[in-house]
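Now for one record:
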Amino acid sequence: MNRIVRQKKRYRMSDKITDFDVKELLPQRPPFIMVDKLTYYDPLKSVTVFTVRANNLFCKDGVMEEAGLIENIAQTCAVKTGYRDMTEPERDGVVKIGFIGMIKRMDIYRNPRVDEQFTTTVEILEEVFNATLIGAKVEIGDELIATCEMKIYLTDKVPVNK
């Protein structure tokens, strides 16, 4: 049985975060990408930004639906994991695929509107084998618009993008 993996450019931790194209760290492809940029990374926390566009798949009547926020949080986790896999010397440089296993305590205080930019912060609460429990918050400026806990499972089985 052959294992197919997607090998990406190897980065160094000394590279600036702004040098990264998030598309290299995500299995999703446009128009399904819900993260514009990784703005902060450390082993336990990452921050991304995203601007809601009118043609977003999750927008209805100028407002991003709840599923878009969930997908953004999941993709923020994916970007964090991909960045870690590509920069930490003890990792193999292969970006692993994650799956949402659980969403817990999802509170949405308001949905972002078209042309609003929001910031998503994910923090690792617990890691056991291939399962990671994260806490997330989504903000527009100083306004908290959503929070949740999410469990993500990682796999070594990576689909080939064609």
